[in-house]
Amino acid sequence: MKQFFKKHWMDILVVCAVVGLLVFGGIEIGDRFSFNKKWTVFVRYFVKNNGYKELLIGMKNTALIAVVGLAIGIVIGTLIAVIKVIPPYKKPTRYAQTVCNVYVAFFRGTPIVVQLLVGYYILLPLMGIKLPSVWSCVLIFGLNSGAYISEIMRGGINSVDPGQMEAARAVGLPFPVAMLKIVVPQAIKNILPTLGNEFIALIKETAVVGYVGAMDITKYFQIQGDNSYDYMIPYLVMALFYIIVVAAIAALVKLMERRLAKNERH
Amino acid sequence: MSVTEKGKVLIETKGLTKCYGTLTVLDHIDEVIRNGEKVAIIGPSGSGKSTFLRCLNCMEDPTAGSIYFEGVDLADMHVNINTHREHIGMVFQQFNLFNNKTVLQNIMLAPVYVGIRNLRRLKWKNFWLKLARKPLLPVETSKAGIVASARAKAEELLSRIGLSDKADKYPSTLSGGQKQRIAIVRALAMNPKVMLFDEPTSALDPEMVGEVLDLIKQLATTGMTMVIVTHEMGFAREVADRVLFMEGGVIAEQGTPDEVFNHPKSERLKNFLSKVL
Ligand SMILES: Nc1ncnc2c1ncn2[C@@H]1O[C@H](COP(=O)(O)OP(=O)(O)OP(=O)(O)O)[C@@H](O)[C@H]1O
Ligand SMILES: [Mg+2]
User: Which uninterrupted H or E stretch holds B253?
Assistant: First the structure.
């Protein structure tokens, strides 16, 4: 623990500074804008009108979209990465690789908001799929992060010694089995820290799901602002909320990174 | 191995050619490897020794020509290469143990995979036989049985090389010599008909070369067919029945160790030997 503080005092300092700035800066400005009254209003809406229950729903949805989206992204990303590293001797392989390239180009080349709008209001209804907006977001965020993770995963696969694949093929394992049992586990170990960062990015990106009517943390505070005719406190609290969550996950990622580094040494 | 099988053609290459772009690395090689033979391949760096060896189990796809393994052309794209590779053990210069598996898992992985795959095929066949109301094939094993026998075999092999205590260790904790002996045993766990070695001791510290060569020699006495690319001339002389000298993508000269090392005919071989002996 002591070591942890020694190593991360910079990060902790930055987080404290930002939090302090938000709180005290908020209060200082707030006094000029009758902070106390607004705070009372916020608390009343939050506690007395059961606002916290909706915040819990918002948190649940944000977590759901980020976590399940990441899981879908890892599956899709791994699949695309594996397809992309197959030696392109056969025609079907090349077709599949072209499809993957188009997929990645599409999802990396358009804003996530556009993907949500097009997916939720046009493509899903066109395909006759009726999903609650949260699950539409899960799906679209999963497809989106799949494109990004495929690139990360490809780097991970390329970082694994080619001798591992050779040895696996030499004992008679088919390519997909060798990939799944030998190469991909080692690739995932190599890219775990990067995946952690991808997860953080994903959490922050979910803030736009309100565009398609999904209730997440951002949307909750927006609604609270709408209802109470005051946006200052809700938005400040919202920013605080995100930074705490993100800092906590970033710390976890760091911890994991150090664990892995330790394992390397033996 | 039965006596009648001994001397039967196991691997035969016909016009085996491998090009990388415009560079011809193997140039129409016709060669036969018979059951029980121990063949050493020597030659200068870049002469195509590794490429030849790696073509024998199609780790490299030949540009032209055929490789017959027990009469089946492995270069034919319609042949399921995986089912044939099970019978061809391969040992690499860099060991290539699976880093994410323990020693025991390294050895058991392929036998368990193949066993379960065969079981699945058998059950699938029985499913169709059942539909056709024909007598079923006997199913003698189960998944658990396959795993148990693979484990027993792996443990026996480990104890044979004196590394039973390393069964649950990961490869990164082992010395080079230990890794290579485990890599050899991993290949043996599949009961291969032939073992291919590509400079098995070149990446080892000198003090570990002996233990690996001893294991290979011991293996030679069991009658295993072996093809060994090596820079250890003393070892080649001792173990091999036949020595192939490769140069410029062809087998320039071959014969018994006595013929090759003591009575070389071509200038190129004499030249090579004068450098390495
Ligand atoms: N994947 C590849 N792409 C292009 N050229 C290659 C490839 N693999 C091998 N070569 C070339 O083929 C030639 C023969 O290589 P090979 O590895 O078979 O030689 P070798 O006899 O095993 O040499 P060494 O004793 O150094 O291992 C070399 O000139 C090498 O540069
Ligand atoms: Mg070589």
Answer: strand B250-255
Nearest to B85 by CA among B11, B150, B2: B11
Instruction: Provide the pLDDT for residue B2.
Output: 43
CA distances from A191 to A85, A115, A116, A168 (A): 17, 26, 27, 21
**Phi and psi angles of residue B28, each rounded to the nearest 5 degrees, phi first:** 50, 70
Residue A196 CA to residue A201 CA, distance in Å, equals 9
Question: Which pLDDT value is given to residue A31?
Answer: 63
CA distance B86 to B191: 8
The Cα–Cα gap between B277 and B257 comes to: 13
Reported as a single tens digit per residue, the pLDDT across A149-203 is 999 999 999 999 999 999 999 999 999 999 999 999 999 988 988 999 999 999 9
| Record: contact B100-A185, CB cut-off 8 A | yes
Hey, is the C-beta of A93 within 8 angstroms of any chain B C-beta?
Answer: no
Position B177: which residue type?
G
pLDDT higher than threshold 70 for residue A251 = yes
Verify whether the Cβ–Cβ distance B92 to A163 is below 8 Å.
yes
What is the nearest CA distance from B110 to chain A, expressed in angstroms? 6
- Whether ligand 1 lies within 6 angstroms of the CB of B181 is answered as no
Indicate which ligand has the atom closest to the C-alpha of A162: 1
* Cα A79–Cα A197–Cα B102 angle in degrees, nearest 5: 60
Residue among B17, B19, B23, B25 to mutate when testing ligand 1 (max atoms within 8 A of CB): B25
3-class secondary structure, B61: coil
Nearest bound ligand to CA B54? 1
Q: Is the CB of B276 under 6 A from ligand 1?
A: no
- Does residue B18 have its Cβ closer than 6 Å to ligand 1? no
Distance of CA B14 to the CA centre of its chain: 19
Q: Give B46 Cα–ligand 1 centroid separation in angstroms.
A: 5
Q: Per-residue pLDDT averaged across B218-247, rounded? A: 94
| pLDDT (0 to 100) of residue B40 | 96
Complex confidence, ipTM: 0.91
Neighbours of ion ligand 2 (CB under 5 A): B 50
pTM of the full structure: 0.85
Summarised one tens digit per residue, pLDDT across range A91-146 is 999 999 999 999 999 999 999 999 999 999 999 999 988 888 999 999 999 999 99
Encoded amino acid at A77, one letter: G
Ligand 1 closest atom vs CA B53: 18
Average pLDDT over residues B235-262: 93
